[in-house]
Structure formats: structure tokens, C-alpha cells
Specification:
Length: 387
Amino acid sequence: MKDEIIGVVGAGTMGQGIAQIASTNNHKVYLYDAYSDQLGKAKHALRKILQRQVEKERMSQEEVDGIMDRIHFEEDLTDFGECSLVIEAVVEDLEIKKDVFQRLEGIVSYDCILATNTSSLSIASISSALKKPKRFLGIHFFNPAPIMPLVEIVPGIATSEEITQTARQKIDGWGKTTVLAKDTPGFIVNRVARPFYSEAIRQYEEGVADVPTIDWAMKEIGGFKMGPFELMDFIGHDVNYKVTETVFEEFFYDPRFKPSFTQKRMVEAGWLGKKSGKGFYEYGENADNPKPTKDKELGQRIVDRIVAMLINEAADAVFMNVATVEDVDLAMTKGVNYPKGLLKWADDIGLQEVLDRISKLQTEYREDRYRPNPLLKRKVRNGEKFY
Ligand SMILES: NC(=O)c1ccc[n+]([C@@H]2O[C@H](COP(=O)([O-])OP(=O)(O)OC[C@H]3O[C@@H](n4cnc5c(N)ncnc54)[C@H](O)[C@@H]3O)[C@@H](O)[C@H]2O)c1
């Protein structure tokens, strides 16, 4: 398997990371980009990241040189004929991706697996460009790819079972944690995580608490590594809002996924978060951000509401056969560092309690956003748990 050659198309953030992983696993890698200056930047960035590992004594100079030597920076696709797996990580644009795969299909061997790293396009829509879509699937890495253990394996409606298994084995072989997800909007992580942001913003909009208090509660009481507002500022509101908007549109405007005016206005105003110096917080040198009100009772209420909504979404992913209970929990702990799998968390809280929280919100608001998931209701009725 180690003598298999891996192709990566697109040498941006994700392409660089994927090339690094494959090369670290002793594969020869072809990394292609449409722009030659981007290839230069990618080489420089990769060398810098790896050199830091040497400085921190996590890798030897020989290892780093080996990883760099195995990556071949390519200005055309012709060498990709030697690849057994090609992972595409170009810009998130359906027409560009379709064009890439059409060109690849004319170059790669008959049994080469073709994969996309898309976050928001459907596997089916990209596969329509291919003559042989059964060897094509989604292999969705998380940023930064060499560090985040999770990879979502997403077969499309045309993907063969055999290709799905082979692809999964290859990625498992690279030491990643793979989960299997149906080709539905946001796959697992980007779907189930929506309430982490939306229910935090909703509580802020209602005036339940201010931004630092909600962040404090989610970290101190909820056990999350970052608060929702800090995390949105870190991701960038343009990126985070776009994911929310896409998931909402792709779910045929299901009100559960409705984006917020708060975040839309921030994007419109150019308050993109850390990268623009201002988001929910200020990031300048003299930034003087407000402090949280460390009210434990209020904090618990905030966390209970967000966690209940997250569990409801996790239950829906299982209910709609997007993924198994185990894979949903793995996805959220290994893909976005949640302190506990949401469905395990639900069992620990008690499903009746979770259902009560959501039902109370629904009674109060009469909004479809707060409808309890049928699987959750069914489990409560039957006295069952998720595990
Ligand atoms: N950044 C993330 O957090 C993240 C996480 C998971 C998945 N993704 C997905 O990965 C893909 C890439 O995202 P990114 O953040 O690395 O983007 P990026 O903008 O950093 O990189 C995209 C690269 O594609 C290149 N490119 C554009 N057109 C091309 C073409 N026709 N042929 C070859 N290369 C071309 C660009 O020059 C650029 O280097 C997207 O589909 C995105 O949805 C991104």
C-alpha cells in the first residue's frame, strides 16, 4: 500500500494538509494547483510547518526532508496517471470541481479512486460530471488536516460499496478516525454543530445573556474548548455564515437551520472576527472586551438549552440514517473536539430530561425550530437509551 501514489488537486490550506498526511505515511504525492505561484507558496508553507516540528523536537530533520522529498509539486496533471487515489481540494465551486474531475478522468487509470474534499456541495452534483461515478466519493478532512483526527467518508448515490470500503481502509491506514456519512447537507459535523452557534446567538439576541457570559458558560460549565462566539470569531463570520446559509438552503429552508440577522449584519459590516480585528470581540492591541457575569445558575440554563438542541440534531442525524449513533458521537468529539459524544451525553442527562427541555422551548415559542426529534420521543416512550 505504501508504494501507492496519491494525487492531490488544489494546493491551498486543505490540499497542503492532505499532501502532508499522505507523504508522512510514506506515499509519493503529486500536488497540483492551477496557479504556479500557489505551488511555490504551498512548498514554502509546508516546509515552514514541518521545520517547526524539528525545532520542537517532534520530528527529525531526516523525517522532514523525507516528507518534503516525497511531495512533487506539479504544474500539470499528466503524472496523475500513476495515482491510485486522487483527492480534490480546489475552491468550493461546483463548475470548477466538475471540470477538474472531467480532466482527471481522462488521465487516471481505470481503477484509481477519485475523491472530493468538499464541505458543502453534494457528492451527487459533482459526480454528474463523471463517466464512471461509481469510483467517486467524498473524503472530507477537517482543518488543520494533519492535526484533526476525523475524516468523513461520504459515498454518493452512484458510489460502489467496494470503493467506499477501500477508500475508508486507506484513510484508516493513515491513522485517521473515519466515520461514514450519507450524502446530505453538512454531512455529520457541519449539520449537527449548527445549534452550537445558532442557539448561542439566539439566546444573545433574546437578551438571555451577553456574549462573554455565554462563552464562559459553554467553557466552564459545558466543558467545550472554546465558546461559540470565540469560535465564530476564529473561524471567520464570512465562512461560518456561509456554512449556515448553505445548510439552510440545502435543507429546503427548514427553520431549524435558519441563519441569524446578528451574524448576517456582522458579515455585511465586514466584522469578520479575528482576521478583520473585530467580530463579537475586539482584537486590537488595546482591546478592552467586557467580562462575563459568572452567574452559575444562568450559565447552566444557557448550556442546557444549547446542549439539548445539539442532542436533538444529533438524534436527527441518526433518525434520518445519515450516520450511526457511534459515528455521530465520534464525529463531534474527533472533528470539533466536543467534550463528550452528544448521544452519550443525552444518555447521561436522561432522555426524558432532554426531551422536556426541547418541548418547553417548543411550547414557549411555537417555532418549528424547536420540534423534538421523533427518535428522541420514541426512545423516551420505550424507555430506551442511545447506548
Ligand atoms: N478550509 C477549511 O476549513 C475546509 C475544511 C474542510 C473542507 N474544505 C474544503 O476543501 C476545499 C478547499 O478548501 P481550502 O480552504 O483549502 O481552499 P483554498 O482557497 O485555501 O485552496 C483552494 C486552492 O484551489 C486552487 N485552485 C482553484 N482552481 C483550481 C483548479 N481549477 N485546479 C486546481 N487548483 C485550483 C487555488 O489556487 C487554491 O490554491 C473546498 O472544497 C472546501 O470546501 C475546507
